[in-house]
């Protein structure tokens, strides 16, 4: 009991609880095709909306602006892109993909209209810049997730 | 309670339902929602640009997605448009209907699209639903959504053999209705000569609530489009008018707190219809309505609640089941769709009751269409700590 808060907080229980909420997520055929191409061919795929011309990475079934079905509008992208934004992660937490400090960046692949979040390595935090050219480095072992791209790093 | 005075009339002008099934692994959540939204827009001959406001609903925690309404804009079509999220447990789908009706009647929006969905195979429903219980007094004791008390009550009142036969007969009739509804999740092809075998051999869940009596966990989405009277008449050949709706909830009826159990309160599924019918001047609901889409979480509840929803006495409800009056071709068709025991994507389920009742009024229910004119339809929703919601639908704008 926190005595500093005085009599008001004396004998007032705080009940600790913990809920286990396991779940699955159905990636759907569109999301699955992206993951399979990434894992098996090391290719990064997007979809293009013919109406607005936007290229979405990761892919999606429907363009939310035009309601076009994009499920078979695949385009292959290269492995290079630019940093559109970034932050430095300073605090460790068990669910994070790296030990702090590390760089978490938004990366827009060349030819895409949307950016994806990923880890940026091989550059010191003080040297990261918006607009920096980067490339994808694939994981050595398959993970069946977006982490089949292990990280991005600057194009030298 | 005063009648539901509306600023202006509201109609349902678009209906879209996905196929309900145990697993929709081929689509993610917004993709599945998009199927229902597109079907509703197609049905109303509208595009998403015609919609003034979108509404979204599902069960909290069931898919382990925070703020799904924001992410699901990918499927709902709400990009750059007004949107609300509502979640009231099992009643979510029909709460969306009530809220959409109010939003349009208020004059705030002319056309509203509401979508309810669930992908129950993705989450852990008992984990989620346990949060319903008070963390100090009930959470460590809560077991989930199943209860055998209804079966015990009906058995106590009418005797074991009659009660068990009637519940199973209800279940078999619902299965036969589901076999005529292509969207239904479950249809086992049950026949009446299996009744005694199922009574004895379907696995028990709690007391005499058996596996066959209980609703499924389903994936699916349902979307409805609501319009004000002026727009509905311009846009639709067959608008279905929302006459009135009522919502009742009484947390103490769950006996969660130490009340005197001998002082049994009027259940919400008796209170809701009593208030609704009183204020609409309906003396004999079983004669007034041409079809009733009930939220029947199990066949025990489905059978027992016929008495409450139609304000019947004694064993009238059991006789309706025994005489098969509740069949599609019967005197008082109940759940031509097959009901909740045949498909239960929870966030959509209670909206599906309204959607199916509206299809019946339009005459568009296909293989499970009630024969003859359907002018007056009733739909119910149920959920959480014994919430009951009723929606009355009409073919003609001719009530006082």
Question: What's the main sheet of chain A like?
Answer: 5 strands, antiparallel
> How can the largest sheet of chain B be summarized?
9 strands, mixed
For the secondary structure, the number of strands of chain A is: 8
Number of helices of chain B: 14
Question: What is the alpha-carbon Rg of chain A in Å?
Answer: 21 Å
Share in β-strands of chain B: 15-25%
The greatest interface here is: A-B, 21 and 34 residues
Cross-sheet strand order for the largest sheet of chain B:
3-2-4-7-1-8-11-10-9
* Spatial gap, N to C terminus of chain B: 17 Å
- Per CATH, the class of the domain at 10-126 and 217-225 in chain B reads Alpha Beta
- Hey, roughly how much beta strand do the residues of chain A contain? 25-35%
The tally of beta strands of chain B, per DSSP, is 11
Helix content of chain B: 25-40%
The average pLDDT of chain A is 93
Distance between the termini of chain A: 57 Å
Q: How do the SSEs of chain A run, as a string of H and E?
A: HEEEEEEEE
Known CATH architecture of the domain at 10-126 and 217-225 in chain B: 3-Layer(aba) Sandwich
Report on the structure:
- The complex is a heterodimer of chains A (156) and B (400).
- Chain A has one helix at residues 28-41, and strands at 44-48, 55-56, 74-77, 80-89, 102-109, 116-120, 133-138, 149-154.
- With 156 residues, chain A is mainly beta.
- Chain A has one domain.
- In chain A, the strands form 2 sheets. A 5-stranded antiparallel sheet of chain A has the order 6-5-4-7-8, with no helix packed on it.
- Chain A is extended.
- Chain A starts with 27 loop residues before the first helix and ends with a strand.
- The mean pLDDT of chain A is 93.
- By secondary structure, chain B is of the alpha/beta class.
- Chain B has a domain at 10-126 and 217-225: Peroxisomal Thiolase, Chain A, domain 1, CATH 3.40.47.
- Helix content of chain B is 34%, strand content 18%.
- Chain B has 14 helices and 11 strands.
- Chain B has helices at residues 29-44, 68-71, 73-76, 92-105, 125-129, 149-158, 160-178, 195-201, 229-235, 268-279, 285-288, 299-309, 316-322, 346-362; strands at residues 10-17, 53-57, 82-86, 111-119, 204-206, 209-210, 219-228, 240-249, 291-293, 376-383, 387-394.
- In chain B, the strands form 2 sheets. In chain B, strands 3-2-4-7-1-8-11-10-9 form a 9-stranded mixed sheet. A two-stranded antiparallel ribbon of chain B has the order 5-6.
- In chain B, helix 4 (92-105) packs across helix 14 (346-362).
- Chain B is globular, with a radius of gyration of 20 Å.
- The model of chain B has no long low-confidence stretch (mean pLDDT 93).
- The chains are: A mainly beta (156), B alpha/beta (400).
- At the A-B interface, helix 1 of A face helix 1 and helix 3 of B.
